[in-house]
């Protein structure tokens, strides 16, 4: 599998709080997305879903901070990596959104140490602010 399966908690909670407790993983309220190959350039060109519960949507381009890790995605593991990502972005002066996503790249039968997972956190800084942050990081 080369494109990730992307999971998003349906309840919107700031990334700085206990995001997983009571939402998403606990009560099964999770949306799931599959990224389609680049050959589908419009929604009209995409295959039509056979199930009415499946919706096709086009997401706008955005800049994200990413934490990559291996292993299983338990609530505690995801929470730990999310908190580390939030702290790291704040330390670097980045402003993040509150909606995060979990991307998983492997089939379920992949051994834990071979699994690739990512937490995606949107960056809300302007282009000018990002350049200032990058200058600071490069000087370190």
TrEMBL record:
Q: Which Pfam families match?
A: SOUL
Q: Which InterPro entries match?
A: Reg_factor_effector_dom_sf (IPR011256), SOUL_heme-bd (IPR006917)
Q: Which domain of life is it from?
A: Eukaryota
Q: Which family does it belong to?
A: Belongs to the HEBP family.
Protein name per the record: SOUL heme-binding protein
Q: Which organism is it from?
A: Octactis speculum
Organism ancestry: Eukaryota, Sar, Stramenopiles, Ochrophyta, Dictyochophyceae
